[in-house]
Design a protein that fits this description.
Shape: rod-shaped
Structural class: mainly alpha
Radius of gyration: 32 Å
Distance between the termini: 92 Å
Strand order of the largest sheet: 1-2
Strand content: under 5%
Order of helices and strands: EEHHHH
Helix content: over 70%
Largest sheet: 2 strands, antiparallel
Length: 194
Amino acid sequence: MKRYGGVVVMKSSKIIVIVIVVLGIFLGLVSFFVNSLKKDQLETKKIMNMIVKEYDLFEDQVLTFNDVRDQVYKVVFQDTYYDSLKDSYEKFNNTMQELEKNVDQVVDQSLKLKSHCDTYYSDSSINNKCSTFKQLYEEVMNSFVNDVEKYNELLDDYNDYLKENGHTDEGLLEYKTDKKYIDFNKDKEYSGRE
């Protein structure tokens, strides 16, 4: 041990070792942080690519739903008369069931989007797809529930017509579904509800 101006060389060696250890720890933390950031960026990019793919599939399913819904309007709601309603009842119910199956397919196709569209992304096109997804999902659900209500009103009116005209025929049962109106995008409006 040599003394230089009252300072022991041994102490300066310890300080150098401590500085090197602290720098090593600091560089290790910086390296860990940079690697974590890169990993998060890659994961986010992967999720954004998945959103684009899933949104396209979802949009196709919504278009299919709209086509089936157009058929429901042609088959059930256009030119339906009370004197033929009972004969067409089973066909109408099958048509409504087909529409509900399409709603279920929209729901199934939306699962991945639901789980990833509650995050804000740096890419505005992804945020727009998520926003549009939420709007379309709400419209599909609410328009289906609205169609069921409209169909059931038709059946109720038919049943009232039977009673008013003294028919002893048993009335037609309403179409049952467990779907309800939703505000999926939380804008305090029920898009698709007429």
